[in-house]
Write a structure and sequence with these properties.
By secondary structure, this protein is an alpha+beta fold. 25% of the residues lie in helices and 32% in strands. β3 and β4 form a beta hairpin. α1 packs parallel to α2.
């Protein structure tokens, strides 16, 4: 698990909810190469890894917020996003932003519901 880029906690439990801070394509502290698809795949792996620290899985995710620097990437993003969730479909928002930390082109935050 990579160290956060800023002064925040990457995963927090709040009662029955697990909140994952926005994850980008960071692997061992280094941004992955290749642009949108590799970054999305790594962001989703990071979410999965953080969930595991709380004994949760991707199937426990109930809401995501996704940030893209270019909405032209929306279809390709969806393909990588769907691959990470399989048939599970959490509620989701996807918004365009001007810029993301570390030069990421995508960031995904997640909320999971996992009763204590």
């Amino acid at each position: 698990m990579s160290k956060p880029l800023g002064p925040y906690t990457p995963v927090v439990r709040a009662g029955d909810f697990i909140i994952i801070s926005g994850q980008g394509g960071l692997l061992d502290g280094i941004k992955v190469d290749g642009g949108l698809v590799p970054e999305t795949e790594q962001a989703m792996k990071n979410i999965e890894s953080l969930l595991a620290t709380m004994d949760a899985t991707m199937k426990d995710v109930v809401k995501t917020t996704c940030f893209l620097t270019d909405m032209e990437d929306y279809a390709r993003f969806n393909t990588a996003y769907v691959a990470a969730f399989g048939t599970h479909r959490p509620s989701r928002s996807c918004v365009a932003v001007a810029e993301l930390p570390a030069g990421f082109v995508v960031e995904v935050e997640a909320w999971a519901y996992k009763p204590l």
